[in-house]
Every structure is written in C-alpha cells, then in structure tokens.
Fold each of these.
Amino acid sequence: MARALINIPPKAKRGEIITIRTLISHHMETGFRYTTTGTQIPRDIITTFVATYNGEEIFRADLFPAIAANPFITFTTVATESGTIALSWSGDNGFAATEQVQITVE
Amino acid sequence: MSTRHRSRRDVLAGLGAVVLAAPSVSAQTAPRVVVIGGGFGGATAAREVKRLLPNAEVVLVTDERTFTACPFSNLVLAGMRDISAQQFGYGGVEKAGVRIAFSAAKAVDARARSVTLGDGTRLAFDRLIASPGIDIRWDGLEGYNEAAAERMPHAWKAGDQTLLLRRQLEAMDDGGLVVMSVPANPFRCPPGPYERASLIAHYLKTRKPKSKLLVLDAKDAFSKQRLFQAAWKSIYPDHLEWVSLSTGGKVLSVDPATMTLITEFGRHTAAVANVIPPQKAATIATTAGIADATGWCPIDPATFESRLVANIHVLGDAAIAGAMPKSAFAANAQAKVCAAAVASLLSGAPAPEPKLVNTCYSLVAPEYGISVAGVYHPVGGVLAEVKGSGGTSRLDAAPDVRAAEALFAEGWFKTITHEVFG
Amino acid sequence: MPPLAGRSAADIVRLMAAFRGGTQPATVMDRIAKGFSEAETEAIAAWYAGQK
C-alpha cells in the first residue's frame, strides 16, 4: 500500500471553501528511460486521481509521464455537509489506493 | 611553448592563485574601484584589485566595523566555539591599501557611476564590484517577519541571531523539541542547514539527551545528502529526524506566538524553532538594478559583470553563479577572478578565461568532517563544473579520513580568514 | 595534505599528477586536481614556486 499524506480540515463551516492537499509516494517511472544495458524501463505511473464527497465526484485529474515522482495534488471545494471525502489513485500495473477522511460541517 | 604561454595568462585562481600578467594601466588618472560588501567576497575583491592595480583608488563600503563569519558559526550554536573566533576587523584590508567607508550603500547611479552612502556621500567609480550577500525574503514565508525572527531565529547571518539561537538551545529543558525549517533552493550555503542539524543533534545528544531535533525540509535532495544521512543514522538515530518535501516537510507558515510551524500536512509546536527562511540578494542589489525577477543577480561567468548593468560586477552569494554554490570559498575564488577581470578591463585588455575552485567542508560531529569540492569554468555563458572533477568525500571513508577532513576544515577557515582579513 | 610552501614547480606538477591519477592518498585534492589540465597545472605550479 502506497503511503499517502492527506490534509483535509476535520471541521468546517457550511459554505466555507476548504483546501484539500494530498501527496502519494509513487516513483512515476516515465517509460522513457533505459537501463545501463539498454533495456527500456517499462512505464509505471499513476494515471488517474478521483476525489468524492459523500459519493459524489468533486475533482478528477489525469496524470501523465511528465508528472514528477510523489505527485502532490491540491484543490479546493465547498464544505456542504458532514460526511466522507474519499481520495483514490489508480494507475499502471493495477495500482490502486483509496483513503477516506471524515469532515464535520457545522 | 605558445600553449604554455597562453595557459599562464589564462588560468586564473587555481587554488587561489591568480596567474596573470601584471596589467599596465594606460589611463593617466588613477582608476577608481568601489566595492560594496565587507564579507569574504568584497574584502577579497578589494585587496586583489589593489594588488593588481597598485595605483588604483579602491574603496570598500561596509556598514559593520566587525565582520562575523558564517562558516563555523554552527559550532558556536552547538557551544563548541566562541563567537569571537568568528569575528574580524578591517585593519588588514586597510593596511593592504584599501580605503574603508563604514557606511551602508544606499543607492547606485549606474549612469553617473557613483554610489551614495548612508550619510549622503557619493563615491565615484570606473568599475563597481558588488558582493552584498543575502537578505531574508521577509515576504517569503507566511508569519515570518523581523519580530518573528526574535522568537524563531534564522541565524542565517552570523552574529546576534547566532547567539540568540544558542541561548535558546541552552535555556531549553531536556526533553524539548527543536524544529528547524529549511527552504527550497537557492539559498546561502547549501550544506549549511545539514551541518547545523548535525551539530544541534550533537549538542542534544551530549547535553540534553531526552530532546530531539526535527528538520522540516522543502526539498527531497540536498548537498552531501548520502554522507549526512549515513552519519545521522549511525550517530544520531534518536536525536535527529529529517522530513523531506515528499514526506510532508515543506513549511507553509509559522506562528511565533505559539511557536508552531505549519506544514502542508501537519503542525509542529517547538520548544526552540530555527527558521531558515527563503532569501534573495541583499536589498542594494535590487536598488542598483542588478537583481532580476528571481531576486538574484545574473552575471557574465568570465568577468562577473552584471548582465543587467554595465560596469557593475557582482559576485558571492548575491550572484547567479551557475553550478557554483553560495559559499565563502566560492565568493573568495570569484572575487579573485572578478578582480583580475576588472584590472584587465580598466587597462584595456580582455579579461582572461577563468577556472574556479570551491570546497565546502561540513562537520557532522567533532572530528568528523565531510566535504564537497568542484572546479568550474564558463561554458555557454554559465559557470559549469569541469567534467570529471569534483564530488563529495567517499561514503566508505575510514574514521581517520573523517578526522583529517575536520582538521582540514579548520585549517581552511584559518587560511581563508588570514588571507582575506589578516 | 602535503604543504605547498618551499616546493619546486616540478614537484607540484608531479604531486598534482599523482592526485589526478589516484596514486597519492587524498581527501579532497584528488577531486580538485581532476579539474585542471596538464598545462594549467604547470602554470599553477610556476606561480606557487615563485611565491616566497
């Protein structure tokens, strides 16, 4: 399981704009590199990131080989109701990771 | 023979040697050179210009009567050295024939070729050499201003700030958490934060063993990284934790009232906080128009003449010197090259092709020194490392090699300060 | 580190070549010597030998 760092405020006021920050450890091998013996190193990257808020998709990103290792993604959303914000990453070689964070909206 | 002859004229500043035919000054009047900055770069440049052009009128502008050197100041923090060992006057520079103006440089008029001092005096120059060093970017880290620096010292200019941080470490109870924040590149002394982390960890381990140092870094990679990390693992496993950018180390803001450092993914409350903030070329560089949008000064790598303003040369930490790090050794080497270029240009001769050397020693513990060295030359308009040269100490070096490097570090400090200020 | 003072130019050139070639034990001089060509080393040596 890849290590993910997440920063989502545990509490927010209704209607408040909150910042979500995530960083997941992943080497993001481009597929463009060769070993010293000339063999191509196969591509191994995260290709998709999706965030949902109580099941509803609020943010999505496609990732490409030009994205550096340990991709850091930050975005904002409006705190509408208490519940779960789920973040998932998926990519090459069946890579999949999901993290869930609870938020209380008052 | 002709190759040999050329190389004698062209090789510069190898190991501190300036191999240059003495320039003959054609102008009837004595050339006037003003140098801004009394650190390793400025003081060296002033002395070198005077040595190469004995009839020149050389004025060094510096606002402090005593210079406090940054290299080795991390030992002061750790209680291993007295600050007086870091301090130097300008008697030696004056004896070398340089006039010292103890004042701040307030403005530079590039067209009129004059520098205005704090008291309104104007100094005319034919060539200006600026080695003004760094200033803190006070708008670079949320919550960190001059008042905050009194609670969370940067200690990135040696002197009162160094002593303040030392007092705070001494006053801290055993068991306290020390937190250090390290900025993204570029900044003064690339290995400096890691030497400091090592020596603070040494202080904690020997004096306050229940305490710990947490290093929050805005980078994933740093100078001499493998050497430092290997040493930390073996010497300070319980006293030093380094948090890299990709493990959430980047500090976004600080709150001096609560001694809190806020990173992208968490908050850390410190008993003692050392915030090394983002930096830029000293303010006079911006005033003079020699700093670009990055806050640093672009230069020609052979002459150190500003890319933005003619007849002004910039060197040391303020300059964008390509592959060369912002170090005292680099400033000293650059000053010799720059002085030779200025002397040549004032004599109507082309500036020679330089080669520059840098060595940065770091202490990981007493009698445990490591180094990174490099040889540089201009390639395609920037200073690049000479291929095949340079590098760090060996990862597998024996303890006696580490001890020798610690000794050479001290020898280096004695030699350079004697050359520049003695 | 062998001191420079009092050495002849030929001696300095020989030492620098040994540092470059890795035959002279070193901490930092091997890394620095590799940055200079033969001709440059000779120029440096001549300068140092001329110092009192």
Note: Residues 148-277 of chain B form a domain with the FAD/NAD(P)-binding domain fold (CATH 3.50.50.60).
Amino acid sequence: MICLGVIAAYVLIALGGMVYTWVAEMDNEDEILPLQQMVHYERKDQPPRLELSDAILGTDWAGKSTLYKVLLGAKTSLTVGLMANIIAVPVGLALGAIAGYYGKAIDDGIVWLYTTLSCIPGIVLLIALKYTFQDVTVLGLDLSGIHGLYIALGVVSWIGTCRLVRAETMKIRELDYVAAARAIGTPGPVILLRHVLPNVFHIAIIRFSLGFVTAIKSEVILSYLGLGVKPGVPSWGNMIDSARMDLFMGRWWELSFAVAAIFVLVLALSIFGDRLRDALDPRLRNV
Amino acid sequence: MKAFYAITAGVMLALAATPFALLKAEDHAYLAGKTVSYGAYGAKIKSVDPATCGDTTSSSVIQGHVYEGLYGYHYLKRPVELVAVLADGMPDVSDDLRTYTIRLKSGIEYAPNKCFGTGPDGPKTRAVRAEDFVLAFKRIADYHVGAELAWPLIKGKIVGLEDYRRKTAAYKEGDFSRYDTLAFEGVEAVDAHTLRLRLTRPFPQLVHVLAMHNYAPIPREVVATYLRPSGKTEIRTPEAVVGTGAYVLREWIRAGKVVLERNPAFRRETYPAEGAPGDRAAGLLDDAGKRVPFIDVLHRTYVEESNPAWMLFLTKQHDVAGIPREAFDTVIGPAKKLTDAWRRKGIRLIKGRSPAVYWLVFNMEDPVVGKSRALRQALQLAYDVETHIDVLYNGRGLRATNVVPSTFAGHDAVEIDGKPVGGPSPYCRFDRDAAKRKLAEARDELAAADALNEDGQIPTLTLDLPGRGARTRRMGQFVQQQFRKLGIKVELVLNDWPTLQRKVRRKRCQIYTMGWHADYPDAQNFFQLFYSENIDAGTNNANFSDEQFDALYEQASKMMPSPQRAELYAQMVEILNEKCPVLLLSEPISFLLVRDWVSNVKPHPIGYGFAKYRRIDVPARRKAGGR
C-alpha cells in the first residue's frame, strides 16, 4: 500500500509537472517561467538551506532550484517509463503469442530475431540506436531527443516479455479448451484473442511494472552519457551528469537529491511489481 | 586432488599477475639526476609534423619546443615583438614589397638524428641550409599533405605556389621525386645561407607568418629515411621529428605521454636581458644572460579530465596547472586574486591575456538569421555577456566589443574627417529594452523576407554545439536562457567536433559557437574571417559577404602598417559592427597556477616553445614534498 501511495505521489508530481510545463509553454508573457528560465545567477551553487525558500534543496550552476528540478524530472522519467513500455509490452505480447501459438517457421523467425537482438548488450544497443537517430525526423517527431529515447528503449526491452509470453502460449496451446476450440473450427486469430491472450495477460502487467524500472534507469544512464533527453529538459539523468564534476568539489546536493528521487521510485516500483506478480501469477498463488 | 587445487590457485595467481608483469614501468633510471618538469595536457596531439599542425595542443606540447621558424617572438616584451630566430636579422624587402631576401644564421644545426648517419659517438647532425626551407614550403604546397593551417595563410600570395600544388597532384603520394624534379618559383635558395621569397602581391604579415613553427626547415634526409619507406607524406613517428629547437622528442605515446629531452646540439642561446615593465620586479629578469634551456626533460602526461589533472597538481606531482571551473571559487578570491590559504601552500597565480575572441556565428546564408540584421543586433543587445563570463568562465574573460582583440591595433576607433569610425560596437552592451525595440524592426524585416512562422512569431532558432560534455551543455542552456528573455526559443544540437565542422562547411548550421585565436598580432588575421573569398577556404564560416568590406580588405591587406591602413581597418570594423555576422562574447583571460619552485613563467599570447626559459628548483621541490 505504501508503495502504491509512493507511485501515486510520483504520478501526481509528474502530472503536475506536465501541466506546469504546458502552461509555461503556452504563456508567452513569461509570467510563468519554464524551469529553463528560472535562473538566478546571483545565487548559483548554493547548498541546501532553509532560508532559500523555493530552493531549500540548494541550487545548481545557474541558480536554478534543485527542488524544482527534482520535481519536474519526475515527469520525464515517468513518461519515458510509460512510453517505452507502451511500445515494448504490446510488441512482446503480440510476437510472443504468435510465435508460441503457430510454432514452426514463424516461431523460428521470431526466436531468431529476439535471440539476435539479445546477443547485443542492451546498453550498447541503446547507445547505437540513439546515435543513428541523430538528425532523424519521422512523422514530425525529432528522434534525436526524447521520442528517439522511447523508441530505442522500446526496441531493446520487448524481448523479455516476448520470451515469457511465448513459453506460456506454448503451454496453453495444448490445453483442452484450446484443442476444443480448434476442433469446432475456430480460426487461429480468434483463438489467440479469446483464449490465449487473456491467459497470458498477467505477464504483460507484471512486465509493464518491472519494465518501468529498467526504462527509468536506462534514461538516467543515457542522459548521463549525453544521449538521452535534450539538454535543458529537466531529467534526473541530466541532473546527475551536470553534477558529476560538482561532487568532486563538495557540492553534493544536486546529485544526492536526484539519486534519492530515483531510488525511492525504483524501489517502490520494484516492490509493487513483485506484489503484482504474487497476486496475478496463478502458479505462485498455489505455492 | 590436492595437486589440482594447487595448480588452479597457481594459474589464477599467474593470470592475475600478468597485467603487472606485462606493464612497462616508467623509465625512472633515465630521469635520475636530471631536472625534469612534470605537467599534463588535456587534448590529444594531432600532429608532430609542422606542415600539418593546426591545433594548439600539438604546438604547445611538442612542436613549439622542437621546431623553429625563421622568426619568433620575444619571450618577455609586451606588446609582442618579433625577433629573428633562424634568420640573421629582419628580411631585406624590395621596394615593391614583393621580394624578401633572408640571410640564415650560420652554424645552426639540427638535433642529432639517425637520418644524418651514425658516427662513433652516436647519431650525427648537420647544419641548416636554405634548401631545407624550400623543402618545407614544397611540403606545405604539396597536394598530398593536408596543411590545414599553413596552406590557407600563404595561399595565393607566393609566386608559383598553386602551380606547384597542381603539379604534385599528378604524382603518387609515395613518389617523393616531386620534391626534386618540380621547381618552386617563389621560394628559392640563392646559396646555402640565403633564402629568397617572391610574392604575387605585397603581404605585410609575411614576417609574422614566418614566425610560426609550421614553416620550420625540414631536412631532405627526413623524407629519404622516414617518409620514403612508409610511402606516407606526414611525419608521424617520434624519431622522424627533427628540428633545431631546444628539445628533442624522445618519446610520444598517443593519448599517453610526451617526453622531450634537451637537444645536445642546440645553439648557444641566452635568457633575454630586457622585458616588459614590471618583469624585473616579478623576478623574470633574474636569469638574464644565462644559457638556456634550464630544464633537461619536459615530461607531459595526457590527462583528459580536469579533475585528475587538478589532483596531480595538488599532490605536487605536476608543477603547473589551470584551474577547473568547479574549484575556482575555493582558489580565487572575490578580487580575482589567489586566496591566502592557497598562497601559503606555495602557489602563485599568473594571469595572461589571449589574443582570442569567442563568439556565436550567424550563418549569413540562413533564411532567418541571415536575412535580418536587426534580429542579429537584437540578439547581441539582449545577451548578458558579463553574466555569461561570470557563470561559465568564473569571470575569466572580458566582454569582446568588436571582432579585433582589445590588445591589437585596429580595435580602437580612428578619427576620419572628425568623426570616430570603428572601435567598440554600439550593440555590444547589455540593454534588453533596446533589444526589444530592435526585435520589432526584426519582425518587419523577417516578414518582408517571408521568414516568420504562420502565427507571426520568429521561428525557433537552432544552436549547434561542439561536444556533449557538461560544459558545452551549460553554454547551450545559457544561450537558451538569454534568447528566451526576448521571447525567442532556441533548440540545442549537440555534435562531436568533426560533425560540427562538416555541418558548418556545408552551411547547414544556423547559429554555432566558434572563436578565433590570433595566428599573428595583426587585425588582418581577424578580418580575413569575413572576406568573401575565404568562404570556400573555410575560414569565413559565417559566410559573410559584403562588397564594400571586400574592397577595403583587399586594399588594406597590401599595405604596410600606416595611418592610412588604420583608417581602412576602422572602416572594416565599422561594417562588421553594423552587420553583426557574429554575436560577440568574450576575450579569454587565462589563469595559471604555478608552484613556487618554478620560475620564469610568463604566458605568451601567440608564440610557442618558451619552456626553454623556465627554471625548476629541484631541491626546493623535493623539500616541499614533490618529485
């Protein structure tokens, strides 16, 4: 319950951040400033102090409040987690079910595809994809920024779901009710949709919650390498990267608070994912 | 079974030890008893060949110490003053300013090298001859040698230069007979000690160009011994680095380290006896008249990140260091002086002005920024350069007020017909209200050029940045913040350096960060960046083209320094001020920290290779806990 509460709080903060950014973008009079403009050069590199009313967590190189950066960073992390999984889980689910149900050449093809992809270390593949997305624009989306990140993460992370769903489908395919459905001449796609998918859907839900964690961590790593979201977009990865040199000089706050935010979210998500599995996985229920 | 475990443990241990056994230890015995200076460099060395050298790291870490040109700069005097190095006095210039006759100093020898043969006491040497300079010019003109800096500076100015280049294109890269069979009209060895240069037009900056080590003599033997067998035109190995300088390249490991040792055949040269005002009080003239170099070995390690380099300085492993941005506030007090705590550690702060100007370039062929002069002026007015210097460079810089550095003649206004012309740009001040007024003008101009968005807004601008490091990104974000205050949005594009260069060359950038560091102390070096003929040569990367400016430039570049030329310079500055092809940012000031055991340190704004004048007190260093 606590975990759910924490996640809900993050989602609320992210939604708040989203609304705020949107309002700031719309506002041409600059009464509501986007984070990028909340600069106070006269108070740069301040440690956390209570007097800095809106910056009690300290400030960065341009005098921007670490507190705001952490809060607005939630939006980036959560959208990345969400979007990456929205791409990855359905792809994994569909391919896994098709491969598991039809078998033979289709199965071989899909297995070949994901084995090949999983041969390449995930982070290397991510970096390579992000590099190829430089200066690429598809359907009006500039892939060198955050959209490319969604796609790159999606491409890398459907494999796990696909494997699990395929195995589960192969098992379900042999069960009596599927055999019965086939015997009365129900076409394959209908069987897949009606009888197989509902029974593997719990995997998708679990993978969704766990995949969130991976996506958030990857975003942080890529932003740290300068390949994630564009500079200036509030994100925890960008914060860690920008604070990397600062830590050396004893300016710990920006790094620490970004890491703390990631830690709490990732922990909450992981525990939540585990519990979800306990609740949804029929095998575990009997143990 | 016991034997199995013993063998396993043994194999594991052996495997774990291999890295240590195979690692080569530093040759400490070689350094014993010698005066060694330790330091770091932060960028990779791209070239050890004077012809292909174009970056400051290659020049300052290796080439400046090894190669010498005909002329050079006085170590101490400011403003900088030319001195003859390999030449015997200043050149004899004909009345039409087109023929330069230069006598060489006699008895100057190359550092001993195997390419000159080996005698009973090791490698031999030989005296420098005028034909070695001819070879140097032939290599720069050679089609197969990528002389990225040395070529554009003399292009079109020496008789037969282009002709020679065209002819060498017909030869294969490894066919070095082109240096013997092809004649080069403009550069000629009259006898062993006399060199004659013939120019296509007067080029008053020639002497400054000859002061660059890029035009150092190259002995024929280097080509025969090191280049011919490899078939490559570029000098790439340490043993093929043969110069007349005070040091010899002993070891060079790419992205590793550089070891330079004293050149045993270095001519007798003494520490200067005169300097700029204040040098005597600073102790810079204490060694006057003594023979240089003082230091036996220059040991430089490649340290890419600023933090480890800083740690090496703090732990007394290195003698000299810059200050990382993050550490700046702890080291330098509010008055831009070293804090007492640091002074007590036995550290001195030495500041130096660099003849460089940093700016944001507007691509003048861009359909938005190129079309509206008012927009460029507005952006210049709205940019808070003072805060930019303070936040991004810890105040290590001055606001640039026109394209010519403030230490150069040509920076200040000149009175023509009772009116001041040139001088500081009227737009180089921080005035957001004036900027907003200019922006209204810019809207009209852009509307006329049909460059506004559908909703009548100024389109989002794009800023291309070199690199993806934290520093670069901060710079980009700062620009975003500044322009946004005018209501103009900026998108940042992070590139690596080669990608940015390629994009700039293809004119595919809109705004990008650049700057220029003077090659020689003449404002002409900065004006050539805006001469339209140099658009193709790559130096005019703003793609600025203005007929009036071109005419003034052509006229001025043939003139020796004179009041008339100063007027032309002022008029050129005036045009650039008004048209704003670049958003002027800062002139850098370098801060150097020096340990007390190092003396005779004075940063030189232009020249390289002054480590020969530095002195290190090794006993003092040991006593302080250093090496």
Note: DSSP finds 22 helices and 27 strands in chain B.
Amino acid sequence: MATNIGQYTLRLDQSPSIIGSAAIGGKKEAEGPIGRMFDIVNNDALFGQKTWELAESEMQHQAAQKVLDKCNLAPGDIQYLFAGDLLNQLVASHYGLRELGIPFFGLYGACSTMAESLILSSMLVEGGLAKKVMAITSSHFCSAERQFRFPLEYGGQRTPTSQWTATAAGACIVAECSQPPYVRAVTVGCIEDKDVKDLNNMGAAMAPAACTTIKRYFQDTLTGPDNYDLILTGDLGQVGSDLLIQLLQREGYDIKKKHADCGLILYDQRTQDVHAGGSGCGCAAAVLCSYIIPAIKEGKIKDMLFIATGALMSPVSVQQGQSIPCIAHLLHLSSTPNPKPQGGNL
Amino acid sequence: METVTNRAYAEMVKKASPPSNSARNIPLAFLIGGAICTLGHAFIKLYTSRGVPEETAFPAASVTLVFLSALFTGLNIYDKLAKYGGAGTLVPITGFANAITAPALEFKTEGYVMGLGAKMFIIAGPVIVYGISAGVAYGIIIYLFRLY
C-alpha cells in the first residue's frame, strides 16, 4: 500500500510500472532534436481529417492504438483511461477515444495533464483497484491557436516570451510492478497564482507552481537535487526555466545542473522559431513517452523527477482581467522499484 | 525561507523576460509598411496614367490593396510577411483586410452562418464599432457647433 510521507507526498510502495508508451508528432516536432524517436509522425497537420479539432482527436486515437499494439494488449485489457487536452470540453479526448470502450475519466490540467493522468493511473494500480490503466494527452498547434489566440492566417508578431503549442500526443500504460520505469512517489500540486497576467509569458506564470511542488517533494522525502539524475519540468520554456532555477536557489536548492525542460527538448530553440520553447499537453507527453521512458528502461536515467506544469486560465478569465492560476504535479520515476518495507514504521 | 512576494516576483519576471527586438522590428516595419504604401501609390499612378480621374484612382488603389491582402492571406503568405513586418503590415489597409480574411478562413469549419459569417469580424469588429462611433460623435459636434 502507498505511504504518506510528509504532508504532500505519497510513496507508492508497490512501485507501479509504466509498461509501455507511444508518442505521435507533427512535422515541426519531427524536425526537432528528438523527432526520430516518435512512434508515428504525420506531416499532414490535419492528420487526414476535416478540422483541426478532429486532427487532434485522430492523434489521440493513434497514440492509444499504438501503445496498445506495442504492449500486445487490446482495449478490453485496460480497466480505466485518464485523458485530457487543451480544448473546450476536452473534445480532442472525447471524440478521439470514444470508440475504445474503456471506462473513461476526462482531466483538465492544461499542460500538466500528462503528470496528472499518470499520477491517478499509478494511484489506482498501487491501491490494487486496477491492473492496467492508460494515461493519454495531446495538444495541436492549430486547434490551440484558434481557441486561445488568433486565427492561423492572421498576421501578428509573437513576443520573445511566447511558447509554441506542440502538435503531439503521448500515451502510457501503467500496470503492476514488473519492469522499469517504476513510479516510486508522487506529489500532487496545489493551485498557485503569483499574479502574472501575460498570456504570452506562461513559463513565468507556471514557474512558482513548479518551485512549490519540487520544494515540497524535497522536504517530504528528505532528498535534494543530488539524489536525481534529471529534474525534468514540462513546458516552462526558457523564461520559466530560468525563473524556476532562481526561485529554487532562494529556497536553498541548486537544480541548475540537473534541470531540463520538455519545452526546450522538443524543439531546437535556435533554429525552429519557437521563441521561448514548446508548450501544450502534447509537449511533455511526447517528450516523456518518446525520449525519457525508453532512457529509463535502458538504464541511461536511474532516478528522475518529472514535473508537468499547467496554466489554468481561460481566454474569458484573462479578458476579464484575472491573473493566471497554475499547477505542477510531480512523479519520481526510477529504473528500480522502492525497496520492500522491512516491517515497522519508516 | 520566506516565499517570494507577488511584487518581487513581477520584478524577477521582468528581468528574466527578453524584450522585443526593437532595433530590428522598427526598421523592418518602416521598410515593409513603406513598401506597401509605395505599392498603393504606384497603383494610383498606374490608374491615373490610364485616364482614371484622381478621385476614383485613390479608392481604386485601396480596393486593389485590400484584394491583394486577402489573396495573400488565403495563400498563407501575409502572415509570414507580418512576422517580419509587424506594425508595417498591421497599420496599412492591408492589415485590416487580413484581420477579416483570416478569421473567415479559420472559422468556416463551423459553417457559413455561425462560423464564417459571425466570426469574420472577431478581430476587426472593434475597429468598425469604434470607428463608426467616433465618426458619429464627430458629426454631431460639427452639426451642433456649425463648424462648416
């Protein structure tokens, strides 16, 4: 059974395994530094569909199908499905996954959804409530632009702090402890708002949430940056990453040498014109599912923290002058499971 | 450790966020915006040289620019030009045409009535509303004070 350690962290004593993962990317993502690692790449931004929303749904559908194929499983083998995306009413997930027939939970955590869905999947497996659970998220540049910003053909300049919504999806299957990567502990984030109002500077809005969650995890587990090979945040981009490092420095944690950000891994910031880096549910999902999970499997990464961050505003709330509430969820992923308890209290 | 106050954090954000590159953006806006206006003037010259009276040639040149802007928006070229042009592509009449054509293209997937028809003015709408309102207010002032 799981053990509460400290106030916010849950140690998953059984250490559920991520037994498979799949990542889908668009053309721009495939041209990025980790483009070769995607399972499926589609150069057609519409993915053969009529609308951008259906294109994103198709991506989710393909990601789900691919991860099932890779694990030699059928939809009927999966007991629960946690999914989310950036669109209103989660239409990408709802339309993309309606044919699977798996008991379904829709999640909205903005760009933090991959961590949120993985945490819930791991908790269900850890608690013995399910044998196999799927977590899946996506984002699409074109569907996100028209919902959150401007029509694609509108001529405007993006600010240097803005981030590029990834056209990508990632899916994982979590099952009982069997193989790496193992989910050893999770810290669920609280909503945090430092009064940032700039929609074109989401990294800055999200960095404090990431700082709080990481700090709480370190305090709860009595560990620090030196205990991990990698501290991977989801989608803070360049500005947010710089701020996170500064914020944690003030708290007494130097993560500079261990830190990387999915938004800066997915694209080459220098040549791909993404300004401060990538973002979107699909960004953290695709980086985790294509690049990180195989690296843990192969033992290249032994212990790491995956912290996906989300900006929880809507275009309406921002137009009404509200600031951007943010969240960050953390998972400790490892190539080895938690040691079996020796009896007695820890 | 005390947590960072909102005000202190705003300062940190300001320092960490790179500003827009004005040294590059402003000259580019001048050049590209200037080129669009020069093109407009070339059309005026062309039309008048073909015997079109001047009071017709001016609006005809504007109409030509609007058409070209809409065409280049549809061909996915205007937004790429605007990436460099910035205010230079926004301010001339071509920017207005782009602001109407772009949502018309984008939202036609929601149908010709509630999509294309309704959302066409999502960006340009405010300009029309406040432009006409200012015109009416100006007209009333002129009427009341009999300035003409």
Note: The mean pLDDT of chain B is 93.
